[in-house]
Amino acid sequence: MDNKGQTSAEFILLFGGIMVVVLLVIYMYNNYINDLSGEMASNEVKEFNSQLDALGKYFK
Asked: Is residue 31 part of a domain?
């Protein structure tokens, strides 16, 4: 009966499972941040265009 070996193997499997979950969360968070930054840039461009349109009325 090698209990130390079994315990070590269980800790390695547990640590590996935790690492897989952490990597998946980081990957999903990265995609969320990239999508959010694209949405923010889109809103900024829309706001800038509307301000240009408002100023364009004075020059026509």
From this structure: yes
